[in-house]
Amino acid sequence: MKKSVFVFALFLLTTALFAQVNKVVVKDGSDGMKLSVNGNDFFINGMNWDYFPVGTNYSYSLWQQSDDMIKAALDYEMPLLQNMGVNTIRQYTGVPAKWIEYIYKNYGIYTMLNHSFGRYGLTVKGKWEANTDYSNLAVRELLLKEVKDMVNQYRETPGLLLYLLGNENNYGLFWRGAETENIPVQDRKSTQDAYHLYKLFNDGVKEMKSISKNHPVAICNGDVLFLDIIAKECIDIDILGINTYRGLTFTDLYDRVKKEFDKPVVLTEFGSDAYNTLANKEDQEYQAKVLVSNWKEIYANAAGMGKNGNSLGGFTFQFSDGWWKTGQTINLDEHDPTASWSNGGYQNDYKEGENNMNEEWFGVCAKGKTNERGTYELYPQAAYYALKEVHSFNPYNTGAKSQINFLDNIQIADAALRARGIKQQYNLRTKANYTLAIYRSTSALTIQEAA
After folding, report:
1. Structural domain of residue 202, as residue ranges?
2. Could you tell me the CATH number of the domain that includes residue 414?
3. What is the rounded CA–CA span in Å between residue 382 and residue 288?
4. What is the C-alpha separation between 313 and 335, in angstroms, rounded?
5. pLDDT by residue (tens digit) across 14-53?
6. Per-residue model confidence as pLDDT tens digits over 334-365
């Protein structure tokens, strides 16, 4: 009897500890900057995660579905993320707090909660404005109210790691569409607009911290554009989040932030598509190669690793393919291989004057067709298996600095064979009217591998 009482008391204590609100802070030490969760060092092995069944687009919300369906979707995808070593996912506001807690309590995965901060337009005084004017006092009042409301709503949520404001809003100062395309950087009017944007970012951060200091606040910038203005206007942010797509290497990104701003960095998006435009076919191996190279630099710039010591981790873009990204409202049932922007950092299929980046092919998992219930299956690709090895590395472990070169020994070809060899064939048809043979894996198989 006494033993039963003790076990029950231990269960209650464990549950209480696991459910408590986490105290998350940024620490600045002699060897660099670290994120600390309840006093323990924490390096972000993150993933951009969303849920869009084939045939839907940005107007779809998983959180508007029944609890039964939401639970089914989470219980299918979170073990796959857990299996590959992901400890944090990026989610946008709109996710109910109970599901952030559910993901954390059942799978140990934290959430970085993202408020878009007017990136895709706002309703101001009852009128929809597609292009946010950050100098407008009504816009300022609205955004400050929204971010304060966010903190009040989520600050006691177990599993919340940090807040993120915006999504490369600086790019929105150049072009106003939501679909990714080449940015006309010659428009210099945006420089003055940037001062209003970053000042409002900083004011938002201060308002949030006045309510709660339990979770750091980051902003999300498009690469390091306007870094000089950020350094002047955003002195109160805790972390600089950066979306960056530079190919195999981030070149001078960490160096520049260290010299010009000296705030810790989280890469909020980075990665590669898995489609070769020149060859007009899927290229899983190149995607995996880019991601392994990117993560090595992320780890190498962590505290104690001998470089800049300002990396807190990153969020790979993205977990599953987005079939709606090209066109956004048309051909939602087709996996479109159309390239919508160009980037010379991806030399496998770059050709001057032509687009080579395929927005619908960034997933480390391929996506199956939607079933009658409204859910779908995922098919891990080479990048998935490569990242599973990558995330076994912890830059804060003793001796990590001398062990990081193990990442160079990850066999991309083996990851590609694994993605093909243990799965059944599954065909995905595109606009180009060709068939891809992708091999299927069930979640049960993947979970069995993790056991």
Report:
1. 2-450
2. 3.20.20.80
3. 6
4. 31
5. 444 445 778 999 999 999 999 999 999 999 999 999 999 9
6. 999 999 999 999 999 999 999 999 999 999 99
